[in-house]
Amino acid sequence: TNRADAVESVNSMLADVENGTFWSPTVTDPAAMVDLLKERHVRYVTWADWLRLDQLELERGQQSGRPRRKFTTIEAMLEALDEAKKAAPGD
Q1: Domain range annotation of the chain
Q2: Would you say the pTM of this structure is higher than 0.70?
Q3: Of the residues 14, 26, 35, 45, which has the fewest C-beta atoms closer than 10 A?
Q4: How confident is the model over 60-81, as a mean pLDDT?
Q5: What distance lies between CA 46 and its chain's CA centroid?
């Protein structure tokens, strides 16, 4: 994932729009995606989850004298979310 890849991706999407070959969803309700993910038992991260992860990374950074300490694996990220939810079940 670098700048050249991003440029290539955007150019490809623009070409699809110009050619009329871009994908157009038949269902546009965002809740439909959540329903599909739940139906397929897919673990997903909500915006609220992302905000909580952001806060957790800032807190981890403070503990080690850095601005932020990122989670380096998806597993660690999800475990941190689970622990945070157990600690504050009302959120």
Answers
A1: 45-91
A2: no
A3: 26
A4: 96
A5: 7
